[in-house]
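Predict the holo structure. Ligand: zinc ion.
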Amino acid sequence: MSSRMVLRMAMILCTLPVGLAGCKARGKEAPAVVTQPPFMSAVASAPPQTADDAPAPDKTGGFDGKRAFAHVAKQVSFGPRPSGSPAIAEVQEYLLSELKSYGCPVETDSFGSDTPAGRIAMKNILVKISGDRPGVILLGTHYDTKRLENFVGADDSGSSTGVMLELARLLCPQHGKYAVWIAFFDGEEAVNLAWKDPDNRYGSRQMAAKFATAGDIPKIKAFLLADIVGGRNLHFKRESDSTKWLKDLVWKTAHQLGYQSIFLDKEFPVSDDHLSFLSRNVPSVDVIDLDNGPNGDVYYWHTPQDTLDKISAKSLAVVGHVFLESVKQLQAK
Ligand SMILES: [Zn+2]
């Protein structure tokens, strides 16, 4: 994902000899060159790698933050998971075996993408829970990690993938008015260091195109995307391009649940998988914490510091709770 506001600046700076993550810092208020977290942030995040802060599931609509955290730990244990790697194949097996164990109906789509590094094999995974009437509520995450040395992506993309697995466990046994589909996208991250179309969102573009061919696009009432949702200092701003009524629904739901200190009433532009659906007129919202400045929530974004100690089971549970309640609100529409 990226903040387009500073893209041009970042592209200029990318010509400079910066570190691994340098060109990728795209938070609006973030400098484009950030290679190391500041000393104080590193100290402040001294690491519990536990799910001890998880609220009891009955406080978060049944969503189990400990389970979601365990899913993040499992993904991190596979190491760096860029598209086409042996490690991402392990993630795919893990996702499929978990989803099947919850009784979820699952479809996979294996495809090849032409990237700056050549053709790369990718796989989208889609849970399809049926409903009584035409209409689909789509949830989504990406599960690939950025091609960076020693980058294990606990928060990006482990956190949102863990949340979606736990949501699938809860939603697959349910049957609502509308269908609920849960998408696990491959290939969100740019293969090059810089985020520059069309070198990004390979999986979501593929899925949106397939939906269009099948005539499914008009059935999608709403697309709720989660990305970078597990940090220990979590704040979400309203993503600028996301559909207003859907942002309002999610934010109102979050505030009613008591999470107004996390779901902020500020705007922030981010390029992410929701664009693949927004461009096809699907109402979409991106729930993402991309506050990646030196003192930001996710100062470790796209650096080797994106490790399990940065993840809070409570944050995962808050996001899961808000998504569950938002799905209920959408089912009542
Ligand atoms: Zn990323």
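Residues 102 and 169 are 5 Å apart (CA to CA). The chain has a mean pLDDT of 89.
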